[in-house]
Fold these 2 entries.
Entry 1:
Amino acid sequence: MESIETVSIDERNRLNFSGGPGVLPDTVLRQAQEAIREAPGAGLSILGISHRSDWFASVVAELQDNVRSLLGLPDNYHVLFLQGGATQQFTMVPMALLAGRANPAEYLHTGYWSGKALPEARREGLVRVLWSGEPHGYDRLPADNELAFAPDAPYLHYVSNETVEGLQFHRVLGRDDVPRICDMSSDFLSAPGDFSKFSLIYAHAQKNIGPAGVTVVVMKDELLKDAPAPGVLPGFLDYHEQIKASSILNTPPVFAIYVVLLVTRWLRGEIGGLTAMGRINAAKADLLYRQIDDSGGFYQAHAARPDRSTMNVTFRLPTPELHYRFIEMAARAGLSGLSGHRSIGGIRASLYNGMQLAAVEKLVEVMRDFQSR
Amino acid sequence: MESIETVSIDERNRLNFSGGPGVLPDTVLRQAQEAIREAPGAGLSILGISHRSDWFASVVAELQDNVRSLLGLPDNYHVLFLQGGATQQFTMVPMALLAGRANPAEYLHTGYWSGKALPEARREGLVRVLWSGEPHGYDRLPADNELAFAPDAPYLHYVSNETVEGLQFHRVLGRDDVPRICDMSSDFLSAPGDFSKFSLIYAHAQKNIGPAGVTVVVMKDELLKDAPAPGVLPGFLDYHEQIKASSILNTPPVFAIYVVLLVTRWLRGEIGGLTAMGRINAAKADLLYRQIDDSGGFYQAHAARPDRSTMNVTFRLPTPELHYRFIEMAARAGLSGLSGHRSIGGIRASLYNGMQLAAVEKLVEVMRDFQSR
C-alpha cells in the first residue's frame, strides 16, 4: 500500500489537482522561492522592492507585453493587474459599462461563477439572462440555436470555463457589434483562440497563471468611450484611472505580479506559446475523460460531452462511501485537491497549465486501481 | 571605498530603508521562502493551497487572534484581511458610514496620505476638514487647541503616521462619543497604544507587517449598526459580507496573509509584544534623529520635533548635489530606499519593525562619514 510519507514534497506539489489556488510549474516555484531572497537584477528580496522602482516598472512592462503577445492582441488593448479577484470585476464591469444605460446587458448563467456575477451586475443596472443552465443542474452549455443575442445590448458577459461544473465553451459567442466581456479566470492562457473578438477579458491568477492576489484585465481601448468620465467612480474602481497609472495607482501585489511574469516567461519560452500549451492541456484532459468513459459507468462525467472542460474534469463515483474511499486512496498516493466544489460535490480534477501529463497519468492509474478493487 | 559588490544579499535586505514595500525580519523571509516549497503542516507549496482548506482556515484564525492579542482588543472587534490597500478603505469607510448622513465626517489633512482619503470620502458624502497642514508644507501636526471636534460627526478620520512627511501622532485624537477611524498603515503594530479607543483601524501590510497585497481591518462590532444593510453595497465592498465570510468571501491573497501571520508570530514570540517592539523602534529613531540634530544643520529634519515619526525619518541635505552624492555613497555601502517620496523629495529613512538597530547604526555611520568629507 502506498503511503503519503513516501511521496516527496516536490512530487506532492505536482499532484495538486485543486480547483485553485492550484499547481504551478516546478521552475516557477523554484524561481519564486529564490526571489524571496533576491529578485534577479533587483539586488533585493522581492518582498522588499518598491513598486515605484525601475525594476518593478520593467516587470510590469514585460508582463503586459507577454500577455498581449501570448493572446495575439494589438497595442490598442490595455493590460491591467488589479486586486480583488474576478469578484471585483463583477462590479467594475457594470459600474463602467451598464449603470445608467437604457438597454439591459446580456448575461449567460451557465454555472456557479457566472451566477455570482449576476447580483453584482443587477445592483448597477438592467440585466437580461439570455440563457440559464439551472433547470438541468448546469450540466451543459447552450447551443447556438438557444441564444438570440440582442443588437442593442451594452455588452454580453459570459464565463468561458465554469470551474465548479467543468463546462467550457469551445467557441466564441455573441455578435461582433456588441462588446464581448468574458471571465476567463479558469482557462486564461490555456490554449490559443481569437481573443481580438473580445472587448474585455478578465482572469484572476490563481488557476493557470500564478498565485492568488492579482487579476489580469485585458481591455480594448475604445470600450471606455461611453463609460463615466475619469474621476466619477472611486479611483481604484475606475478603469480610466488604473490605465493612466499603468496598474500602479496604489501599491500593487508585487510578488503575485512577479510570479505571473515568471509563468508567462515559461509559457513563451519552455512551452513555446499557447498553441503548444493548448495541445498539452488537451492531451491531459483526453487521457482523463477516456478513463472516465471507459469505466463502464463506474465513473460518471458531470458535463455533457461537447461542453467538457479541458481545465476542470468533474465526475462522480457510484456511492458516497466509494467517493470517500477514492479520495483517501488518492491522498495516500500524494494526490490532493480532488474533492469537488462544496456547491456540487463529486470529484473535480483541475488540470491547469502547471500540471504535467505525468500527474494525470498517476491519477488515471489510481482510478484504474480503485475500480479494479 | 566600499562597493555594493562586497555587501551580501542578506545584508542588503537588512539595509532596505524603503518607505514600502520595505524590510522584513530575516526569520520571516526565510520561512516565507521555505513555504514556497512547503507550508509547514500543509504538505504543499503555499502558492498551491486552497483558501478553503482547514489549514488556511487555521492560518486566518491564528492571525485574527494574534492581531487582537497584540493590540489588546476584546472579541467584539472583527479582524479582516482584505485586498486593495488603504486606498480601498478610503472608499469603503465612507460608503458604509457616511453616505446619506446629514452631518459631515471630520477628516484631518496632515499630509500626502490623509489628503488621498479626502476626494474618495467626498464622493460618498459630506466632509469637514478639521485641520490642514497645507499652509506650512505639512511639516507639523495640530496641537490639541487647534482641534474642535464636533459631537455629531458620523466619525473622525485621521492618519496616525504620515509616511511621506514623517509625521506621527503620539496621542489618540477625538472624542469618545464619535467613532475614531484611523489609517495606521505605516505604524501598525509598531508600538503599544490604547487601541480600544478606535472603532476602526486599517493598515496595509507592506510597511510593518508583511508584503504588499493584503490590508488588515480591525473593526468594533457596533460600528456597523447604522451602515447600509447587508446586500446593499457590492459584496466585496461590504464590511457585513466580509465579516460573515471571515475574510474569505472570494479567494484571498493566501501568501501575503501567511507572511503577515509569520510577522505576528515573530512579534509575539522573538520580540515579545508591542511594548518591546516600541522600545526597539524608539531606540532606532532616537539614534537617527540625534545624528541629524548633532550635525550642526548639515542634515535638516523635515518634521517639527514633537511630531517626529519613529517610522519614517525625513530630512534634507544642504544642496541637490550633496543629496545625490549621499544617496550614491549610501548605495555603495548597500543601503537602499533612501530617496524621499517623489512628492516632497529629500531623504526618507523608513525604520519599520523588520529593521534592526544595526542597520540604523550603519546609516548613521554613513551620514557621519559623508558629512566629514
Entry 2:
Amino acid sequence: MLNNHYYCIIMAGGIGSRFWPISRADQPKQFLDFSIQGRSFLRRTYDRMKNVIPEENIIVVSLERYRDQVRSHLPELPEQNLLLEPYNRNTAPCIAYATYVILQRDPEAITVVTPSDHAIARHEIFNSTLLEALSYAAGSDALITLGVVPTRPDSNFGYIQMAGKPEERRPVKIKTFTEKPDANLARVFIDTGEFLWNSGIFVWRADAIRKEMEKYAPEITNLWVGWRDVLGTGEQQAFVDRIYTDMPRTSIDYAVMEKTDNAWVYPAEFRWADIGNWESLYEYLAYHDADGNALNRTSRRLLKDCSDNIVYSTKEGKLLALRGMEDFIVIDTDDVLMICPRDEQKLKDFLSQLAMPEYEEYR
Amino acid sequence: MLNNHYYCIIMAGGIGSRFWPISRADQPKQFLDFSIQGRSFLRRTYDRMKNVIPEENIIVVSLERYRDQVRSHLPELPEQNLLLEPYNRNTAPCIAYATYVILQRDPEAITVVTPSDHAIARHEIFNSTLLEALSYAAGSDALITLGVVPTRPDSNFGYIQMAGKPEERRPVKIKTFTEKPDANLARVFIDTGEFLWNSGIFVWRADAIRKEMEKYAPEITNLWVGWRDVLGTGEQQAFVDRIYTDMPRTSIDYAVMEKTDNAWVYPAEFRWADIGNWESLYEYLAYHDADGNALNRTSRRLLKDCSDNIVYSTKEGKLLALRGMEDFIVIDTDDVLMICPRDEQKLKDFLSQLAMPEYEEYR
C-alpha cells in the first residue's frame, strides 16, 4: 500500500535542443526512445514512479504544445494531473506550479520531483532510496537532492559536495553545487570522495519547498498570489497563461537550493545518467558492434570499414549502409541528415551554424 | 510541318540498378530527375523528340510493371503508343516489337530509336542532326547510329570506329564497335580521331531494320510470325506475353549492328552523356559548390569542411548538414542511407554486398 501523502512531479516540458536533429521542438527528448525498450523516457519515468507514488498523485508538468504527446505517451494520466505551462521557464516555475496544485489537494504532501528524460537502472535500489528519502523528508524541512555516487569522473554532469561524511540512510548537508567541471576537476572531485552527481531528483515536503521559494524566489511566488481561488477551477489555465508572461526563467538549484540553509543530499547507488550529450548517448544506445559503432537499432545495416561511429535513424526499417567512416555521428531523421565528426566542440559549433530556427521561439 | 513518315521508338524499360539506391526496381533512371529541371529523363526525351517527330508517331516501349509510371510522366501518350513488355530483354527484342507496330501503321516509316535515360544538350544541333540522319536514311537501307564526337577520353562509354573520314552531312561506314575501353585505350581512341561515342540512338527505315533483324536475329523475329494478325487487336498483349517467355536477351548492337554490312555512324556534335555511373552523375548534378561538392538540389544544405562529395537526397526540403566529409558519396532515399567513399571499385564491391534483392527477379 503506497503512502497517500506521497506525490510526484514529473517535469516534462523540456525542449531538448541538445540532441538536434533527433530531438526537436516538437519531439524533445522525453518523448524519444533511444533504447530498444519501446518506451519513451517519459513513459519509463512514469512507470518507475508508480512503484513508489500512488498513480493519482503523479503530476506531470509539460508545455501546452506537448499536451497531445503527453496524452499519447501516458493515456491513463488523469486530466487534472497534467499541468501545462505556456512556456518553458526552467525548473523553478514548473515546481512552484505543481507544488501549489499539490498543496491544495494535500497540505501534508511529501513530494518527489523528477526530470522526465533521464536514464535510470537498478530499480530496486532506486525505489528503496526514494522511500527512505521520502520518509526522512516527512519528518523535517529538509530539501533533499538525490546525489548519485559517481562511477567515473564525468565532466558532463553537475556535482554536489557533501558537507560531511554520509551516514547510512540519512541525507548529508550540501556544501557546494558545481556545474559541469572540466575533466581534471572532475577527477579531483572523484578522488576526494566528497562529491556526488546531481541527479536533479528532489524530495521534500510540499510546504517546506513552498516556504523556501517564497523566501528566496518571491519573483515567482508573488505571481501566484490568489492561487487557492484559481487552482482546480475553470480559470486555472488562463491564470497560468497570464502569470507566465512575467515568469522569470530560473532553475530550482539556482533559485532555492544554492541559497537555502536546508539543502541536503541523499547519496544513492542506483545507476543514473542524464543523457545530455552525444557521448553519453553513445554509451546508452541499444546496439554496439565489434568495431565500436553504436546504433539505435540492430536491423537492416551494413557497416564496412567503419569504427566508433554513432549511427541513428528515426526511420524504422531504413537500411543504413556505411563504408569507410570513422568516429562520425550520422543522424538521419525525416527532414534532416546530419553527418559530423564525433567531437563535441565541432558538433556544437556546427549545430550553432544550423541555427535551428524552430527553437528560437521557445528560448 | 513534321514528316508523317517519321517515327520514334523511346526505349523506357530499363531497370536501372546502377544507381541503387537512388534508382530502384520500382523507380529506374528514366523516371528520375537528377537535375533541377523538374522533368524526368523520360519526360525530357519525349519533349526532345516531339520537335522532330509527330507526337502520334512517338512509341514508348516499357515494362508492364511501369505502365502507371509511364502514364504519369507522359499523360498525353495515346494508349496504342505505349507498348509493354513483360520482361526486359535488352534492346533488340524491344526494337523488334516497336518496329512491327510501326510497320503495320506505315510501311514507309523511317524510325529514330532512342534510350529514355540519357542526358542531351544543345537541342538545335540535336534536332538538325536527327533530321539530316532521317533524311539520309529515308533514301537508303543504312542502319545509322548517331556517333557523338568525343570531348574527352571517357572510359565509361562505348566507342564506334569510323571506316573512313567523315564527310559533311553524311554517315560513315562503321569499322568496329568497342565496349567501354580502359583509360589508356580511350586516350588512344581520342588521339586517332577515328572514334565516336556510341550514343545508342539509331536512325533507319523500319523495313530496313526488319530485314536485317530477320537475317541476323531470326531467334527474335521467328517468334513474331503472325504479327500482322495480332498487333492492334485485343490479342496483342497476350501474344507479346506469350512470345516473351522464349525471347532471347540481346542488344541491337550485338544482334544486328555488329553483323550487318549496312552499319553506319553519323557524327554528331550535340552534348550527350549516358549517366551510367556515379562519376558521370557527379558531372551532371544540378549544383556544384566552390569546394567541388555536387548536390541534386541547392536548398537546405550546410556543408562545412566538405569537398568533392556527391550528396543526393530524394526527399524534397530535407536539410543536408555535413561536416568533415571528403570524396564520399552520400545517398539518402526513403528507405536507404548509403555513405561510401567515391571510388567505383569500393562502391561496386559494397553494393554487391547489399545484395539488392529487389532486383534479383528481374535479372
